[in-house]
Amino acid sequence: MSMRGTLFRLFPQAGDAYPEPEVIEVSSPAGTVGPGPSDGLLAVVDAIDKPPYDPPAFAPPYLGPVRPPAWPDQHGDFSHIPVDTQQFLQAHLYGSVRLTLDVWEKYLGRHLRWMDLEEGQRIELTPVLGWPNAQSGPGFLEMGAQVNDQGELRLFCLNLDVVAHETGHAVLFGELGTPPSGRVTADFLAFHESISDLTALLTALHFESVIAHVLGQTNGNLYVLNDMNRIGELSDTQQIRIADNLTRMSDLADLRLAADGEWIDLTGQKRNAHALAQPLTGALFDFLVDLYQDNLVAKGVIGPDLDARGWDRQEVEAAMDGLAAAFGARLSSLKGAFRAALVEARDALGRVLGAMLDQIDVEDLTYEQVARALVDGAQQVVSPRAAAMLTDNLRWRQIEPTPRPLERAVAASMLSRARQYRSGVPFAAQMGRVQAFRRIACCPPGRHHEPLHAAVLGQIIRAEHRRPV
């Protein structure tokens, strides 16, 4: 008899579509998560009147006053905690982070590595700061709050998209580390934003309520704007980014990263890594939809006349009403098949991202290298057909998965094998050799913070993470 995990109640997204939290089981065995909640890797520290961390000047561990922690029930679960308590905020943040880590480990097929943690160090989780941002950094993840366009105060610790996005950044830095001084590229920062957004999307799709709502909202036609492609939703009408976008690399020709880490946008739109992330995010979202459509055809749910793969955007939009009616008629009688098609597509995309992660070298990273690793991953863990679909989507975005020279292929293979056995570089050692811009202050729409600058060699500064409207 296998031991079950620990139960939490989590809100899948912000907005009125999900008025009640859903019970979610995370991988930590029941009875192993202590007060806080806390475990060997994560510890909620509900600090009182703490300003945001600003490492290395102000970094964990936090030693000031804290609020009383959430406690498990007699079964070792945290699903009993009332929603209107401070302890629910603590449990919700921990549960959201742990679920996101579970999702990544599922797709990696192994435990995560944490290069930026010293031995025995845990990641501090702070649920509420008096700050309209959220951020992650070496050994911490902390959440603030923001007033949305409806005048409602939204706590980021209750917004799974925001928490999962920040956790995605932590995973990438823990797995890949940080490029050395002078070798941080614009594509590296945009890659971080894109994969973190996709982390949020894939994590949300592990909620049965989200799957059911998305399929019902779209009649099974995922080309419709829906809860799945609205990243970081703050209300029913406001989101931070949309995964389903039409941005191509040529649209960003006037955007570049200066040597001092500042973004220069010659159009005056003040775009940054988030904007540069959109072509990659869009290509991978389109790939997800293609996989879903492919599954529907393979299951006999839709016929060739409704198979939109290979259609351009104008053709899809022109046929939208007909697609909605036809899909809706089938969805009413074939909900299980639609759900299975979406879950299989979700997991295929996740496995591709996991395979890609073991092939990436962050030094002088380019989108072309990312594209090659993604296509190779699709070839290895899904199918040659999937690799071809992904290649087409990347090329439409003007991201060319360039052929890998033999020596680079060998190096990537060696890198992948080395990571299988690497125990990780402690944060203290990393601080002594790495200089990079790592400004990850998640500023909300319309708010801009003065950039932080590396003052000494080895200072890791969080990559800018301003939230566009």
Give an account of the 3D structure:
- A four-stranded mixed β-sheet has the order 3-4-6-5, covered by helices on one side.
- The chain is built from twelve helices and 14 strands.
- Helix 2 packs across helix 3, helix 8 packs across helix 9 and helix 9 runs antiparallel to helix 10.
- It is α/β, with parallel strands linked by helices and 469 residues long.
Summarize the structure.
Strand 5 and strand 6 form a beta hairpin. This protein has twelve helices and 14 strands.
The helix-strand sequence is EEEHEEEEEHHHEEEEHHHHHHHHEE
Approximate helicity band: 25-40%
Count every beta strand, where a strand is a DSSP E run of 2 or more residues: 14
Strand order of the largest sheet: 3-4-6-5
Low-confidence stretches: 232-240, 420-469
The main β sheet shows up as: 4 strands, mixed
Distance between the first and last residues' Cα = 49 Å
Form type: globular
Question: What is the percentage of strand-forming residues?
Answer: 5-15%
Task: Output the structural class.
Answer: alpha/beta
Number of DSSP helical runs: 12
Task: Describe the SSE topology.
Blueprint: E1 5-10, E2 22-29, E3 42-44, H1 86-108, E4 123-126, E5 134-137, E6 140-143, E7 145-147, E8 153-155, H2 160-176, H3 186-204, H4 208-218, E9 230-231, E10 241-242, E11 255-257, E12 263-265, H5 273-298, H6 313-318, H7 320-331, H8 335-357, H9 367-381, H10 384-396, H11 406-421, H12 427-431, E13 436-438, E14 460-462
Parallel strand pairs: 3-4, 4-6, 13-14
Antiparallel strand pairs: 1-2, 5-6, 7-8, 9-10, 11-12
